[in-house]
Design goal:
- By secondary structure, this protein is an alpha+beta fold.
- The protein has one domain: Aminopeptidase, CATH 3.40.630.30.
- The chain is 30% helix and 32% strand.
- The protein contains 4 helices and 7 strands, in the order E-H-H-E-E-E-H-E-H-E-E.
- Strands 1-2-3-4-5-7-6 form a 7-stranded mixed β-sheet, with helices on both faces.
- Strand 2 and strand 3 form a beta hairpin.
């Protein structure tokens, strides 16, 4: 039974997953195009963070950065390799969207890679109503990035 909880940024399993997520994103993304948050950035007050658990096993993580009164940005979505395809990513994304609604946000944005490694992520977001958009906030046009958004 999947349980999504607030926080977890001090849990060793969460730290290990986030380190893997960060290092993998840096290694597969061309220099200057990676926008992944490290652990210290996820602990900042403008970020809400959640971890997904199946019993004692961490299966996924996700975060929401509040950009302004109306807009938020999805960050640090990652699912344990062994749990991919099981609905963890969808459950986390639905959880983030619900929390964003509770925060009275009107729109959600995200940036992900434009190349094959990130195709499953782009497909997940599209299945949940996200569509491509121009760069937002402080992002610049980048052939290695796909920008997406949706109203919530």
């Amino acid at each position: 039974m999947l349980k999504i909880v607030d926080g977890g940024l001090d849990d060793p399993q969460v730290i290990a997953m986030l380190k893997f997520h960060f290092n993998t994103n840096i290694s597969v993304t061309p220099p200057g195009s990676a926008h992944v948050f490290d652990l210290s950035r996820l602990k900042q007050p403008d970020v809400s963070f959640w971890s997904a658990w199946d019993g004692d096993t961490l299966t996924g993580v996700g975060a929401l950065k509040r950009m302004n009164t109306d807009d938020g940005e999805i960050k640090s979505m990652h699912t344990l390799k062994e749990a991919r395809g099981s609905g963890v990513g969808s459950a986390m994304l639905r959880h983030i969207m619900e929390r964003a609604r509770e925060m009275k946000l009107k729109r959600l944005y995200l940036e992900t890679g434009s190349f094959d490694y990130f195709a499953p992520a782009r497909a997940l977001y599209a299945r949940h109503g996200f569509s491509e958009c121009p760069p937002y906030a402080d992002y610049n046009l980048d052939k290695n990035s796909t920008f997406m958004w949706r109203e919530i």
